Amino acid sequence: MKRFIVGAALLASIAAPLQAQSGQPVTSGHGSFYVGPYIGYMIFGDLFESSGNSEYTNEDGVLYGVQTGFSFSPNISLLGNLGYNKSKFQVETGNTATNVSGDIGVFLYDAGLQFRLPFEQRDSWIAPFLQVGAGAIRYTQDAERFNSKAQTDVQFNAGIGADFQWREAIGIRLMAKDYITSLNWSDDNDIGTDVMKGQTAHNWAITAGLNFGF
Question: What backbone torsions phi and psi does residue 200 show, to the nearest 5 degrees?
Answer without folding.
Answer: -70, 130
